């Protein structure tokens, strides 16, 4: 004979909403956009620390490691960055005499941008 179970109502309390996980936002809420692109940010970080692993570059820039890999590949293809294998690690060299790409800034090169951003005493987190 089958065992009978009491009829229990399974309802959730409307006063308790389901738990939510807050989104991770690498850019503070007050700063949803920046003047420089992620490509520039990656170049700046690698210029300051050419032996940094891409995972750490991603953390510093606030994008995914995969996005950093894509950006590094694009920068290499366009001649802005050179990768050198040193043992099992990569060493990155920024080609500073490459002109900036937009016509408005094409009279300047990557070195000018890096000098402006990384001036001694700027306190920047490189």
From TrEMBL:
Residues 38-86 form the HTH marR-type domain. It comes from the Bacteria. InterPro entries: HTH_MarR-typ, WH-like_DNA-bd_sf, WH_DNA-bd_sf. One of its GO terms (molecular function) is DNA-binding transcription factor activity. Transmembrane segments: none annotated. Residues 1-26 are annotated as: Disordered. Pfam families: MarR_2 (PF12802). Residues 1-14 have a biased composition (Low complexity). This is HTH marR-type domain-containing protein. It comes from Crateriforma conspicua.
